[in-house]
């Protein structure tokens, strides 16, 4: 059984370090990502990322994404346009993961464990979508709209 492919998959070999990677979602991918993230509309998703070797067996992925979309206002329930610029910063490891019974100690300045590299590749597209989802306002409000309270 094969692993499901994300809506915006761009698997890149980790040997392609120190090269910029430009990613742009096509129309079908934009529709699928909007559905996944429960957005009324996603009209643009682009990113530029680079892959660098870190210390030991770590691989660092950094960059920036740009998206044009609509979110639904939590007050009026109307969609409104939003522009998102989000930095991308992720760490992967191509080494062997620690045994299940071994305690993983993380550095204080790095609260997230590195993601594993799968078959020598990193899915930059999925990383971009995950970064976009983290950059969305969880309680979006249309500009100028304020909650006036409940009528009694």
Shape verdict: elongated
Number of strands: 7
Strand line-up across the major sheet: 2-3-4-5-6
Q: Strand-residue fraction?
A: 35-45%
- Work out the radius of gyration: 19 Å
Overall pLDDT: 86
Q: Report helical residue fraction.
A: 10-25%
What class, by secondary structure content? alpha+beta
Please give the count of helices: 2
The main β sheet shows up as:
5 strands, mixed
Q: What low-confidence regions span 5 or more consecutive residues with pLDDT below 50?
A: none
The H-and-E topology, N to C, reads as EEHEEEEEH
Care to give the gist of this entry?
With 152 residues, the protein is an alpha+beta fold. It contains two helices and seven strands.
Describe the structure.
The chain is of the alpha+beta class and 152 residues long. It has helices spanning 27-37, 124-135, and strands at 11-13, 20-24, 41-53, 58-72, 79-93, 115-116, 121-123. The strands form 2 sheets. It has a 5-stranded mixed β-sheet with strand order 2-3-4-5-6. β4 (58-72) and β5 form a beta hairpin. The protein is elongated, with a radius of gyration of 19 Å. The model has no long low-confidence stretch (mean pLDDT 86).
């Amino acid at each position: 059984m094969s692993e499901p492919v994300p809506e915006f998959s761009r698997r890149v070999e980790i040997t392609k370090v120190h090269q910029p990677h430009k990613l742009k979602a096509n129309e079908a991918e934009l529709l699928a990502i909007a559905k996944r993230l429960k957005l009324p509309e996603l009209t643009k998703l682009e990113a530029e990322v680079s892959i660098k070797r870190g210390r030991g067996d770590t691989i660092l992925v950094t960059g920036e994404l740009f998206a044009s979309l609509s979110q639904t206002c939590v007050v009026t329930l109307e969609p409104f346009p939003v522009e998102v610029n989000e930095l991308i910063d992720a760490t992967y490891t191509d080494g062997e993961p620690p045994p299940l019974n071994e305690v993983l100690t993380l550095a204080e300045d790095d609260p997230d464990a590195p993601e594993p590299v799968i078959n020598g590749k990193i899915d930059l597209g999925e990383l971009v979508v995950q970064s976009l989802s983290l950059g969305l306002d969880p309680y979006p409000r249309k500009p100028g709209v304020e909650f006036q309270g409940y009528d009694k």
